[in-house]
Amino acid sequence: MTRRWKQAALITTAAAALALALPATDASAINRVGCNGRTDFVNIYNYGFSGHLCFANAGYTDVTIYSVDNVYSGNNLLYYYTSLNGGVTRHLDPWTWEDDNYYDHGAEGTVRWLQIF
């Protein structure tokens, strides 16, 4: 019986040590903000500039933004996923515009997620 208790204690100790050794994942701090003319935010424009969304802070978020026409990275390194061409991940360096690249057989693209660094 003592051997089983020792094994149980060893397994419990090993499991606790493993749990403490694993790195904690960072919480996503990305959030939607008012644009207010700011050029340092990620800016996403709908077709014909009919809508305008801005995002700030590093992190990852799932979004669904339809009819995207232009994306501006602001002072951020930006990765995002667009539905065009069967779905592609795109990358923008800081202070970079990507415009009019969202047309796929006459349809505008949908952005599905953003990751800001």
UniProtKB/TrEMBL annotation:
SUPFAM superfamilies: gamma-Crystallin-like (SSF49695). Residues 1-29 form the signal peptide. Residues 53-94 form the Streptomyces killer toxin-like beta/gamma crystallin domain. It holds the Pfam family Crystall_2. Gene3D superfamilies: 2.60.20.30. Keywords: Signal. It comes from the Bacteria. This is Beta/gamma crystallin domain-containing protein. It comes from Kitasatospora paranensis.
